[in-house]
């Protein structure tokens, strides 16, 4: 998203555009914003622009904050403005050879709470389910807890398989030796655009696939958003003005051209 903006509106070359946006974990991004830390990876010299490496981060594009991040903001007396800027789907993936194509919300909850442990209980083969999770405070783990489990306790750390990064999770689900056994979760944009893997497939949920139209009309159960987040104190400053632009027709068009699903 930021790469597309810099290409279109700052006149950056493709190479400079890729350098303009610094990608980090969700938790690290929230910490930088709340604690007013500079992005130490963000000093870029081009023929058009110089970014100050000491300037505090004032806008991040992320998934929803975790309870820990919300509490950190309260502790530091920082009020955040959190605005949805586009749609995405929180999806469940398995190996392409798995005979299961659909799970209900209840089945997913029971798999990740430990009540369902075999694929035969959800219409698949007689095989133990290998359910992978992400680490605490990752964007996808926060979504799993808030959007899917909704207060239902997940299996404790000593009884689950943790993937330390999104790419690792996608890879382990697609591994041949796991065959039909694995299940994990991620975001649709990530596996469609950033980290494709031909050995995985996306499961329907309640019989609904995460197609773009199903996200816009919200019939897909785990429709979610990416958010533009700023400190409220910066609402009238550059960060606030840029967030407002992202929600404008021009900004939404730029977001769509970057491969995301615009709000309108």
From TrEMBL:
<dbReference type="Pfam" id="PF12849">
    <property type="entry name" value="PBP_like_2"/>
</dbReference>
<dbReference type="InterPro" id="IPR024370">
    <property type="entry name" value="PBP_domain"/>
</dbReference>
<protein>
    <recommendedName>
        <fullName>PBP domain-containing protein</fullName>
    </recommendedName>
</protein>
<keyword id="KW-0732">Signal</keyword>
<feature type="domain" description="PBP">
    <location>
        <begin position="57"/>
        <end position="250"/>
    </location>
</feature>
<dbReference type="InterPro" id="IPR050811">
    <property type="entry name" value="Phosphate_ABC_transporter"/>
</dbReference>
């Amino acid at each position: 998203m930021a790469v597309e903006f810099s290409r279109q509106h700052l006149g950056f070359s493709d190479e400079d555009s890729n350098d303009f946006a610094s990608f980090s974990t969700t938790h690290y991004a929230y910490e930088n914003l709340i604690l007013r830390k500079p992005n130490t990876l963000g000093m870029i010299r081009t023929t058009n622009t110089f970014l100050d490496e000491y300037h505090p981060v004032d806008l991040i594009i992320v998934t929803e904050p975790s309870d820990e991040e919300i509490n950190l903001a309260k502790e530091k007396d920082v009020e955040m403005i959190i605005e949805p800027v586009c749609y995405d789907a929180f999806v469940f993936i398995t190996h392409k050879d798995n005979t299961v194509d659909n799970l209900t919300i209840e089945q997913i909850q029971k798999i990740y709470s430990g009540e369902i442990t075999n694929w035969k209980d959800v219409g698949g083969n007689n095989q133990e389910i290998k359910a992978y999770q992400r680490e605490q405070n990752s964007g996808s783990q926060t979504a799993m807890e808030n959007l899917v489990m909704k207060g239902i306790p997940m299996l404790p750390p000593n009884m689950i398989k943790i993937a330390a990064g999104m790419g690792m999770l996608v890879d382990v689900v697609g591994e041949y030796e796991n065959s039909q056994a694995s299940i994990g979760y991620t975001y649709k944009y990530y596996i469609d655009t950033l980290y494709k893997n031909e050995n995985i497939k996306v499961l329907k949920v309640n019989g609904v696939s995460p197609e773009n139209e199903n996200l816009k009309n919200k019939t897909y159960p785990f429709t979610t958003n990416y958010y533009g987040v700023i400190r409220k104190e910066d609402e009238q400053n550059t960060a606030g003005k840029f967030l407002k632009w992202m929600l404008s027709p021009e900004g939404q068009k730029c977001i769509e051209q970057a491969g995301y699903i615009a709000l309108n």
